[in-house]
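Researcher: Structure for this, please.
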Amino acid sequence: MLSKDSSEQSLPEFDKLANLFVQAGAFCSPAEFHGTLCGHLAAGGRYDPANWLLAAAEMMEIAVVSEQELSASLQALYQASLQQLGGSNFEFALLLPEDETPMSQRAKALGEWCHGFLGGYGMAGGSVEGKLSDDALDAMQDMVQISQIAAEQGDDPEAGGEEADFFEVYEYVRMSAMLIFSECNQPVAAQSAPAGEPLH
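Model: Predicted structure, token format:
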């Protein structure tokens, strides 16, 4: 699912980040964590590097981010997520398990991502009424449904749907997140890439 051979920054690998989360004693999955971050960014919220690590520790329900590899991965995750969401080439990716992972686990992770996105959007003070288009409002409601259905499928190894069905939902969530970001960040969306670097 991750973009390759692109000028966009890449997200950290899911499995490596998951191992770092376990070592740190985190109480959330990388998928939910990334969803929360993207929801916050979509609502217009931003962090500077120091405050981001404090916020990340709070999201992970740990005292502090002290391990250097985890700190570097979280900083990379923040920068890549912001650049991808604000980019003009639609390279935004959700941080989910690799394609070889059992479908039930991938479906559960997608639900966790949606749950995190909705929570992050709300915590950043993102308004819904009067700010989002009808399409974006529908997307938010759909994410609620996806998070519930995916959680139920994740409990059943036989469930989860076919690959094509999963990819269709993945693409819908991905495009929905970019839509919501664009509607809430119109003045800054074009400035999310580091200075001097092209957006595509």
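Researcher: Any notable elements?
Model: Helices lie at 14-24, 30-42, 49-60, 68-86, 103-123, 134-154, 163-184. The first helix runs from residue 14 to 24.
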